[in-house]
Amino acid sequence: MPTINKVLFLMASAKTIPGLSGKIAIPPAGMLSIAGYARMYFPDVKFMLRDFGVENLPFEDQVRAVKQINPDIIGMAARSFIYPATVRLATAIKESLPKARIVFGGHHPTLMSADTMYPDCFDVVVRYEGEQAFVDLMKMFVNDEKWPKLYSGPYLDDLSHDYAWDMIQYPKAYARFYSPFNSDPLGSVVWSRGCPFNCFYCSGPALWNGSKPRVRYRSPQSIINELNSMYSLGVRRFFLHDDTPNTDLKKFESILHAIIKKKSGMSWGAAGMRADENMTPEYLFPLLRKAGCRYVCFGIESGDSSVLKKLNRNVSFDEIERVLKLSKKYGLRTAGSFSIGHIWNEEDGSLGGEKEEDLKQTIRYLKELIDKRLLWSIQFSVIDPVPGSKLWETAEKFNLLLYEDWEDLLTYDRVRLNFNHPYLSQETVDHYYKEAYKLIGMNPKHAIYLLSTIRTFRDLYGLIRTGSFVWRKRLFNTINKNGNKGKTGFFAAKFSRLP
Fold first, then answer.
1. Residue 211 contacts residue 155 (beta carbons within 8 Å)
2. C-alpha 450: how far from its chain's center?
């Protein structure tokens, strides 16, 4: 009977996407989870991870490295914009190691239709969650059973297994260049899966449609074990990447209490926090602070209430201002996540979308929040149609998509419109994108406020690095008409709009 000695999880290098390779990459949580789950069933198998997006090896060296490992099974995953890079690497590996079995999964095959065709470099394509599916495939392998070309695994009810952080060979390579804290290695964690909301631009509803309940949480002990593993690798800070971590307050609080009890000494930031008043009781904020949280990002998206309604973002501006004030009151740095360039379906089925006045209103609202000193930083982006989202479906329906290859998606760090917008040009979008970052990067009053939040040398160093990132990558780096990045930045965007 066949045996499994080595399993290699492999991330392809998205070389055409500068924001998703090299220094700002983060460990692939999905692969760490699948490996941790699978080795409960196969304790004698050696599980390994190579992330070529971090290692920055030439392509030939990547193939040579996999050949040297000579794994029995290779697990690969991709979002749509790194799918071509994954195919290129898998094809080369198959030519070099024809006996190795390659499993392909992740967001891309999950969000594409079930009848999508995939190249022969993949022995099997997995849709939906990968933990149980990967174990099933390993069992088929040792039982000498033929793999299907397409396999769907169930959503897990129990998320108490440990993640395989010990697979990471190069933890220092995951240090982000841009951080609200410092430049030491940054851990990436996910404590829950799913989101109960149905925002128009998000692929989450399609991704978690089969999950019952819609949002599931890991056990506090699993999370503590993960933090211990990260700490042993030299990680002293991490970022929480949940879609909506405060969906279930009781479960979220149990995790925070476990971290407080552990006294890890780690600092962290949280993205995806929902501002709804029923999801943000005041007692949550000091609890976050006590658990080591120092930075929270709330999804605001737009400063125009009519746009928020079209996007199915049912959060009021009063609720947003309330959570920002509470965050500040309890010593948490705040960020607001904004996006521009939205389109939607009108009630009569016609195509609707943001106009320049809507973008102006978002900038006015952003300025209002900054003038009130309610935002420490911002995350401002140009919206991208993502497969599985209603936004994608609308862009397809009205033949608006511009990409010629999957790699064109997100290629420009969410700065360029990658679809034909009915009301906005790239020049207009670029202008308001720069205007947003001017409010935090070229605003003396905001600079004074930021300096007032400094408590330690680490705070100062982190602020300098953050400011450097905003100036170099946001204010003085833009997209020209050919879709290429240049160093003309804010001034080009400003003067190009003069009469």
1. yes
2. 26
Q: At 75, is the secondary structure helix, strand, or coil?
A: strand
Say yes or no: 120 and 255 in one domain: no
Residue 487 clears pLDDT 50, i.e. is over it: no
Q: Which of 137, 152, 167 is the last residue of a domain?
A: 152
Same domain, 299 and 359: yes
CB atoms within 10 A of CB 486: 12
Mean pLDDT within 394-407: 84
pLDDT mean over 286-291 = 97
- Does one domain contain both 148 and 212? no
The per-residue DSSP string of 438-494 comes to HHHHS-HHHHHHHHHT--SHHHHHHHHHHHHHIIIIIIS-EE-TTS-EES-HHHHHH
CB 89 within 8 A of CB 62: yes
Buried b (16+ CB within 10 A) or exposed e, 390-417: bbbebbeebebeebeebbbbbbbbbbbb
Amino acid identity, position 439:
L
User: pTM of this prediction?
Assistant: 0.87
Task: Return the CATH number at 44.
Answer: 3.40.50.2300
Print the domain residue range for 62: 6-152
Measured in whole angstroms, the distance separating CA 117 from the mean position of its chain's CA atoms is: 26
Range from 26-35, 118-127, 301-310 carrying the lowest mean pLDDT: 26-35
Query: Is residue 399, in this structure, part of any structural domain at all?
Result: yes
Residues pairing with 345 in the sheet:
351
CATH no. for residue 432? 3.80.30.20
